[in-house]
Predict the structure.
Amino acid sequence: MMKLKVLAVTDEVDPRIYSTSVRDRMGDVDFVVSCGDLPATYLEYLTDSLHKDVYYVLGNHAEELTREGQRGVPRHPMGCIDLGFRVVRDKRTGIIFAGLPGSPKYLEHAPVQFTEKQMTWRILRMVPRLIWNRLRYGRFLDILVSHSPPRDVGDREDPAHRGFAVIRSLIRWTNPTYQLHGHVHLYDRSQGNCSTLHGTDVINVYPFQKLELQFDGLPHRDIDIEPNVDSIRAELSHEIAEGPSTRV
């Protein structure tokens, strides 16, 4: 069993993290994960202070990341690793990440917002790499990082904060150990921030969480799914043809 300490941040610059003492309190983490809607300077501060890899996806409020004089053009944090619609393996730990930026589309001409169909097609383009991981490492991925949650798992009913149905299908087919997200602000401490979907722990990390993650059987974790790219493409495409799914 592999155990890792992870600092996960999202949506809000927290003074407890944006602090000169962050290295004393968080210096033992193995890496940092950002689930979006954070200024590039915040993530750059974390990688400089902790000297650890920072993996990130963009949120839907991309104006917080824009360069001065170039409104609407995302300013990606220097020295950090963009997971946006990518599958990345951490060379030091062997952990496999996949990242889904943005939120459901609720405004016209918004920079990082997607319809269900748009999100589905972008996920489909990630399938060959996921299949390669299954063949090479015995699993599709370990941590799915997204800004928005899966449909009906910690999301909200309003259009801006409704989760993506296709993320449910992706979790069902790829069986990551963890799915980390933000976007839904949890101000009530009595609200739970962790749910389980198809055996995957789904965690809302708002505004930050120091997590102790456990992974069984790495580098090869057995799962009862055949690595058939055509069947996976067909299942995900079903979300387009049939509309949002809420199957557990």
About this structure: The radius of gyration is 17 Å.
